[in-house]
Amino acid sequence: MKITKWTTRVLQTPADNPLVVGIDQPGTREFVTLELDTDEGLQGIGVTFFGGPLTPALRTAVDNLCELIVGEDPLQVEAISDKLRLAAGSAGPEGIFTLAISAIDIALWDIKGKALNQSVCSLLGGHRDRVNTYASGALMRPMNLEYLAEAGPRLVEMGFRQMKTQMGAEPTAQREVARIRTLRDAIGPDIDLMCDINQLWNVNQAIDIGQRVEEYHLFWLEDVVARDDYQGLARVADSLTTPIAAGEYVYGIRPFRHMLEHRSVDIVMIDLLRVGGITQFRKVAGMAEAFNLPVVSHLVPEIQVHNIAAIPNGLTVEYMPWTLRLYEETPAIENGQMVVPDKPGLGLKFSQDTIKQYQVS
What we know:
Elements: E1 3-14, E2 28-38, E3 43-49, H1 55-69, H2 77-88, H3 96-116, H4 120-124, E4 130-139, H5 145-157, E5 162-166, H6 173-187, E6 192-196, H7 203-212, E7 220-222, H8 230-239, E8 244-246, H9 254-261, E9 267-271, H10 272-275, H11 278-290, E10 295-298, H12 301-310, E11 314-319, E12 333-334, E13 337-339, H13 352-358
Helix pairs in contact: 1-3, 2-3, 5-6, 6-7, 7-8
């Protein structure tokens, strides 16, 4: 089998989240989609984003890399990855190169699953056929306490047993704590509640506020300080009983080694696009397993469900539904768990209606 051609598109969709009710969500999100074709009629799909105003450059990067792999055997995923990394020279791993190669890597795994008539989850290990998922993006830091008190129970009614909120923008520690207290009172003690800081605290703030919210039993505190402050993260992790999660801002696999060696985190979070695709995701997951640490996903739940369900240390999938409208059908959620599609490959197909409506010429 050989790769024969590819098609990329830029889609610009509304920046909304179907889990948010009654709040205007202005702006747009831009995605680069990839369809990778073979001489045996199989097609793999991939997606990447985070480009913002650089989205056209990201699409060009995907195009340029795809041009280099025409004629290659798509089942030789590692060989293609090595070829593209060598061709990129010093352009990676951080930035557009890794975001671009991720789309290709995802498409290659989709082709491989279709060629072997197995789901990507099965190819990666097939540890289970469903995995816990948590509601994300509905309890963001701009939302006031009244909204949080209403939205938390609504997510529970929708079937979610896990959900994530944010701190990091309030002027005082007391007001930060009030957000967590409000949500915990609203959803009760049996729902897992995570909280993302998005690197907005320093180490002392993280320890201080983290200790104040320990009574509310957070499932984790996420990205409490700068992404590359491994020693600072370790100080916070050592000071709190609440687990510390981080990793979504990391590009490539090597920084995860430093994070793990410094014992900076209790939970390893992997962004599929920044790490370099499915191939690199599973390498980081293996490193985490060697350190007896669980792995969680960041964004693109329709693809990440394969990664998390495939491994024994996969903990939960972030249900951030930004990308779901790109597809005809996405994985089902049953009793707070996301079900792995039982179709070959990723089990996904781009929606032609979405392409027609949101494609940027």
